[in-house]
């Protein structure tokens, strides 16, 4: 069975959610991800990006090296990384949502996500992103 790698990170940005430059970023990401077989979801809310990205280990590492250097965000912090037998986001080359779709702060407050450790925070964030995928169109 194929093994995929995944990464979940948070970063800070001055890009406005849903703005033209943000949409352009997502368009480029979609094109690249299609080429490299990467899938995932990007949520953009109040100065933060949260992104889950997954695929073949070598392709994921290559794109992550570019993302880490991208001047459109800073203070990139890994929340989780590892391997998985199947993708979490097979529908999306890169889904995108903003607070007008759903607020992650509100979602975390309304769901029983108990955050004592970073891994629990990461699990809550993944659940939020997967729910966005299910509702996105
Ligand atoms: C928050 C954020 C998420 C990004 N996500 C992806 C992505 O999923 N896939 C991707 O190829 N590029 C992504 N990028 C863009 C890359 O950093 C990079 O600009 C792109 O891969 C093109 O590479 P190049 O600028 O070296 O030509 C993202 C950038 C930011 C700031």
TrEMBL record:
Residue intervals of the BLUF domain: 4-95
InterPro entries per the UniProt record, alphabetical: Acylphosphatase-like_dom_sf, BLUF_domain
Domain of life of the organism encoding this protein: Bacteria
Entries under Gene3D superfamilies matching the protein: 3.30.70.100
GO molecular function terms noted in the UniProt entry: blue light photoreceptor activity; FAD binding
A Pfam family annotated for this UniProt entry: BLUF
SMART domains named among the record's database cross-references: BLUF (SM01034)
Record-given protein name: BLUF domain-containing protein
Organism: Paracoccus salipaludis
